[in-house]
Design a protein that fits this description.
By secondary structure, this protein is of the alpha+beta class. It has two domains: 145 residues, no CATH class; 50 residues, no CATH class. The chain contains five helices and five strands. Strands 1-2-3 form a three-stranded antiparallel β-sheet. Strands 4-5 form a two-stranded antiparallel sheet. A hairpin with a 2-residue loop joins strand 2 and strand 3. The longest helix has 14 residues. The chain is globular.
Length: 209
């Protein structure tokens, strides 16, 4: 959840701030296609960190966004949204200001719907939630000889899951073929503030409630 709201729909952000317009309709997007685009972009840009994002709703000077990434750079999404789009995540006091560290400043309309004074904004939690993790696990025979025993033990644990846990409708791209998918519902503070602000999840994400 971002504040302030975005004034346009954008699809992609990289360190070079490459941006593409997308359709205004908030229909279900294909996660597989998003991952494929990310993978291709990473190959083209030599594994440059890339964040794919979709604007789902906006109201009261706030926006609800869905982000996807294949790279695990620390604070990647937070930094891309704050410094690339100038729309920091609600409750992100670390990246709300580029040149100094201070509590986030919220627009008056957002303070009113959240029923909070600016002096208390410092207590707002970060509204960033990992709703889904797609984990590609290589076959045991393809494990790198240089991989540590602890990593291999983790992969062995994941491989022990029944194959029915994997998503068999994934693209044939070998990098993201048949990943395991893990999901998590929204935390209470996130759900509560969605309702206060008036932001709504699209129908295909209603299971997060």
């Amino acid at each position: 959840m971002c504040a302030p709201q975005l004034n346009r729909h954008l699809q992609e952000l990289t360190c070079k701030q490459t941006q593409l317009d997308i359709n205004n309709e908030a229909n279900e997007y294909d996660v597989t296609d998003a991952f494929s685009v990310l993978y291709d972009k990473m190959q083209t840009n030599h594994n440059q960190p890339t964040t794919w994002y979709h604007l789902m709703d906006r109201r009261n000077d706030a926006a609800l966004m869905l982000c996807s990434t294949l790279t695990g750079i620390k604070h990647q999404i937070r930094a891309h949204l704050a410094f690339g789009l100038q729309t920091p995540i609600l409750g992100d006091h670390k990246y709300s200001h580029a040149e100094y560290l201070a509590p986030q400043r919220l627009p008056k309309s957002l303070l009113e719907v959240l029923n909070i004074r600016q002096s208390k904004v410092r207590y707002i939690s970060l509204h960033l939630h990992a709703l889904s993790l797609h984990l590609h696990v290589p076959p045991s025979s393809s494990s790198s000889p240089s991989s540590s025993s602890s990593n291999e033990g983790f992969f062995d644990f994941v491989r022990s899951f029944d194959n029915s846990h994997s998503n068999n409708n994934i693209t044939n791209n070998k990098f993201i073929k048949n990943p395991f998918k893990f999901t998590a519902p929204l935390p209470n503070h996130f759900r509560g503030n969605l309702k206060r602000i008036g932001l709504k999840l699209p129908h295909y994400l209603k299971y997060l409630h």
